[in-house]
């Protein structure tokens, strides 16, 4: 297989042509992308379930609207935390990204039926706060088995996801060739958008290209 250029930390924005209802108008944050496949979470699928209903101790730290988000169609019974820690609290070149072979934190991986990350390889760097492992920039994964108090003073934002989106080796690359996704940069504020239902349009609208025009695409093209 040819070498895959990692898209870890970037956004996949569903094109209007993508027919899969699981990803209609979806904005996916890629947490892991390499030759072995890809893993991400959908940022704009809030559910009616409150964080306090499944993870009461983390509920005070979760950003509004304070609900669990459906991260994707895979392993909906697993929980995964994604948090932004403002710059200066980690080494930019610190611990390896998720794409180095580590998957969601130990608790999440075991629930999802995946091998837990090896501490020596996928653990935090010495400059990262306990309970948080950098994925890209200020974005990282939270160990939901750790005491929330470890991160309370440093978290900029926190989202809790049920399930995730996954692709096998080469599968995402094929979808990109087929025009299913736009690939754009992620901003830390995307993780905790106060209006997630409008995130698809907001991300496209800020692009300095023809993608900004796609933001005006009607929900039902037949009405255009």
UniProtKB/TrEMBL annotation:
The record's annotation in Gene3D superfamilies points to: VC0467-like (3.40.1740.10)
Which HAMAP family does UniProt cross-reference here?
UPF0301 (MF_00758)
The record ties this protein, via PANTHER family, to: UNCHARACTERIZED PROTEIN YQGE, UPF0301 PROTEIN YQGE
Query: Got a GO cellular component term for this one?
Result: cytosol
What is the name of the protein in this document? UPF0301 protein EYS09_13505
InterPro entries cross-referenced by the UniProt entry: AlgH-like
Q: Where is this region: Disordered?
A: 95-129
> What lineage does the source organism belong to?
Bacteria, Bacillati, Actinomycetota, Actinomycetes, Kitasatosporales
Leader sequence range is: none
Similarity comment: Belongs to the UPF0301 (AlgH) family.
**Compositional bias (Low complexity):** 104-118
Q: Which Pfam families does this one have?
A: DUF179
């Amino acid at each position: 297989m040819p070498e895959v250029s990692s898209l870890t930390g970037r956004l996949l924005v569903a094109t209007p042509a993508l027919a899969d209802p699981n990803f209609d108008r979806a904005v996916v944050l890629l947490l892991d992308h390499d030759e072995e496949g890809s893993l991400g979470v959908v940022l704009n699928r809030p559910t009616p379930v409150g964080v306090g209903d499944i993870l009461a101790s983390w509920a005070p730290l979760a950003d509004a609207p304070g609900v669990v988000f459906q991260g994707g169609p895979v392993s909906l019974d697993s929980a995964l935390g994604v948090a932004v820690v403002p710059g200066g609290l980690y080494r930019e070149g610190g611990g390896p990204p998720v794409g180095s072979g580590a998957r969601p934190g130990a608790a999440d991986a075991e629930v999802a039926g995946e091998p837990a990350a090896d501490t020596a390889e996928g653990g935090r760097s010495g400059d990262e706060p306990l309970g948080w492992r950098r994925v890209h920039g200020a974005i990282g994964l939270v160990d939901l088995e750790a005491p929330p108090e470890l991160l309370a003073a440093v978290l900029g934002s926190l989202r809790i996801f049920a399930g995730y989106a996954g692709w096998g080796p080469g599968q995402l690359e094929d979808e990109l060739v087929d025009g299913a996704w736009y690939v754009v940069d992620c901003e830390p504020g995307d993780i905790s958008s106060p209006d997630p239902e409008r995130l698809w349009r907001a991300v496209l609208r800020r692009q300095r290209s023809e993608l900004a025009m796609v933001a005006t695409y009607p929900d039902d093209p037949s009405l255009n």
